[in-house]
Write a structure and sequence with these properties.
Two copies of one chain form a homodimer.
Chain A: H1 8-20, E1 31-32, E2 38-39, E3 48-49, H2 50-67, H3 71-74, H4 80-91, E4 99-101, H5 105-119, E5 125-129, H6 134-145, E6 151-155, E7 170-176, H7 188-197, E8 201-205, E9 224-227, E10 242-245, H8 289-300, H9 307-331, E11 335-336, E12 348-352, H10 356-365, E13 368-369, E14 371-373, E15 377-381, H11 389-405
Parallel strand pairs in A: 2-13, 5-6, 5-7, 7-8, 8-9
Antiparallel strand pairs in A: 1-3, 4-10, 9-10, 11-12, 12-15, 14-15
Helix pairs in contact in A: 2-8, 4-8, 5-6, 9-11
Chain lengths: ~425, ~425
């Protein structure tokens, strides 16, 4: 239905109808959101699942304070990397035993690149995206610095399309499933086919797709993948990341962060490193258990609904937002850079605007929380688990007001902060 | 005073006198300990500081749930690596700007070894201890695997004493300040002098000394150090670790885990890695903030008393324990392997006993919680912040009862668990 043909009351009625018919409307109660806020920065940091409060109290008072060292066994702390990894795996199309929750995204990129390079010892090119979330590239540089023969080739620098960079010298292709700036979505299966046809290995960064875009790692023939849990998986600020390796690669898996949690018998305290079998080999050191414990609530908040339902609502929300803001964007020099085609985007809407920083601050002042990425990108993430159609309509209204009123010119919105 | 010359009532009176005169007795109230337990496994996992409960509630409900993304600035999340690092630095003799709290011990060993090797590019030997906590060696193996010319030489394997392994080919010496098994303490300043005389770089593992043994990294001329915060610093299960680099090395500092938190301008999202100045360069990825937040309470619980006072009490507690159990050990085939000399030990008492596993289980059944390390080592950590002399006397009494009664032979104590 084209809302442009409706009057204001009819639009409100149609929005209410959509919320009333939303099969995922009950998920909203699983999250704590600040009163009055419309939170469109879940692609940066997801909100707190309500269950996390009581889970954390149990972890603090019962498991740590009362259970102490025995909680490594009795509370399952030591196994969390796997128990949470297997559950998370289900959300990204990974059969059990191929995913562990651990460390940071950056550390896991490092492991994944080394593991991929070890699978292709006769090749010396890492292909990545010039527009990648930068830490992926920074880490790739760190990997390359340790092997003088390694070459890093970037989409947008060495060729316009990543597909044109992949050849017989390519060892590994490090690629983002959803672009953190524009929200563009790659066709994982198609790119994997090309990568494999050239004999290379793929490392997928799922930071901006896990939990909101259907991901089928096993089905798409993925080799390795990494991602974070604190965006659309809502597992807490800086929550431990994850890493996936397809079972067919496990026997040949190796990575240099060979800490004791990746040892075949970590509590035998053997002198020499003997890598564990399977995905365990991608572990390194002791994990931050209190942060890990929140991953449970993050996963629990969405794992009982179908990813296809989350995807359908995500697309409906982003379609609605773009429909409502597009005329105003056009009139005021802002450009929606996120592709319109469903197959080509994730769950965010990105808009370039010269004064995007100030406009985002003006929106935040109105309770619509988006974020900004230099030099001119306004980003709005739409999480179907806790946003409804009325939220989107209110956010669009605020956006249109800010743009048409020019309130972003107010000096209180112009001053940049150290960290955004 | 020799307690052996006193009768039972006189011993009890003397113990009560010591507790009454304890200048650190007030610290006990800062910790939650399970009712009835005497916790001697703080060298494995420290107990919960009471302040951590309310701090975590604030972090969960105010900072995350209400503050959301703005807490990266407003709650100081992004700066925690430094603010906590500087406070922790004071406890280990490090002037501000040389210590960050981040990642795991294993990951930090990896960074420290690479940083040390980069400082000595013309050398190719890593010297370490055969009796090291194994993850240090596992990680050293991982580092060595990436550079075929690197050689790993171990104390106890290649020579009896580490001092005899250090020569003009030595790039780095990786050494534990306190041995995790025996509790032996190294003379850091003396070993640093030898290491530096040979032109090598030292990496100190402070896991079993930070928070309980006076450490003077700056004064002892240390180069690099790493350690954990979940033992005598009581910062929570798997809490983020720390890494130190002396300021004189900062300009030449490099390490391959070049993630975005180590970038000179992490929020500029530049395409190329440009290392930050100073200790920041040893950071990699986003940190687990909820686990990080507990480090505050762990440090606060001991940072307002002098480390010399903690050390004096630690030695008094361990002296007392050894005095009380030694006759029984001798009579029952157990051997105290921790050195008696104050200058030669940390804050734990280790006892070898063929049936040590079962004996530790029997002690745990009596509320005296120690731990066991294969093949035959019973370990008891004495944290002066929350243990008193009466605790030590009760623990010694339980130990003596278990040994003299032979109750450890009971089958319920013999069965090993998957994780100890």
């Amino acid at each position: 239905m084209n809302l442009a043909s409706l009057d204001r009351a009819e639009v409100a009625s149609e929005i209410a109808r959509r919320d009333g018919a939303d099969p995922l409307g009950h998920l909203r109660a699983r999250f704590h959101l600040p009163a009055g806020a419309i939170y469109l920065a879940g692609n940066s940091l997801g909100p707190a699942p309500v269950a996390a409060f009581s889970d954390m109290a149990v972890a603090m008072r019962e498991e740590w304070a009362e259970g102490l060292v025995r909680s490594w066994n009795d509370a399952g702390w030591f196994a969390l990397v796997n128990t949470l990894g297997n559950r998370l795996g289900r959300l990204i199309g990974a059969a059990p035993g191929q995913t562990v929750v651990c460390d940071s995204v950056s550390v896991n990129v490092y492991k994944a690149l080394h593991a991929a390079l070890a699978l292709r010892p006769d090749r010396n090119v890492i292909v990545a995206e010039g527009g990648s979330f930068p830490t992926d590239l920074y880490v790739a540089e760190g990997v390359a610095a340790g092997r003088p023969d390694l070459v890093l080739k970037l989409e947008g620098v060495d060729a316009p399309r990543i597909e044109d960079l992949i050849d017989e010298r390519t060892a590994v292709v490090l690629v983002n499933h959803v672009d953190y700036k524009t929200g563009e979505l790659r066709d994982m299966a198609a790119l994997n086919r090309l990568i494999h046809a050239k004999g290379a290995v793929a490392v997928w960064d799922l930071c901006h797709s896990a939990g909101v875009v259907p991901v089928d790692l096993d089905g798409a023939g993925a080799d390795l993948a990494i991602g974070c849990t604190y965006k659309y998986l809502n597992c807490g600020p800086g929550a431990p990341a994850f890493i996936y390796a397809a079972a067919r690669h496990h026997d040949a898996l190796s990575q240099p962060l060979s800490g004791w949690w990746g040892h075949a018998a970590p509590f035998a305290f053997e002198r020499g490193y003997r890598p564990a079998g399977g995905i365990q080999r991608l572990l390194c050191g002791t994990q931050p258990i209190l942060s890990m414990r929140v991953v449970d609530a993050g996963l629990a908040a969405i794992e009982d609904v179908e990813m296809s339902a989350l995807r359908a609502k995500s697309l409906a929300l982003t379609d609605l937002f773009m429909e409502l803001i597009e005329p105003v964007c056009r009139a005021h020099g802002a450009t929606i850079v996120t592709p319109r085609a469903h197959a080509a985007r994730g769950s965010q809407v990105s808009i370039t605007f010269d004064n995007g920083y100030a406009a985002v601050q003006a929106l935040i002042a109105r309770g619509v929380i988006g974020d900004f990425r230099a030099p001119d990108m306004m980003r709005f993430g739409f999480a179907p688990a806790y946003l409804g159609y009325a939220d989107v309509e209110r956010a669009a209204q605020a956006f249109n007001d800010v743009m048409t009123s020019g309130i972003w010119r107010d000096e209180r919105f112009a001053k940049r902060r150290a960290v955004t």
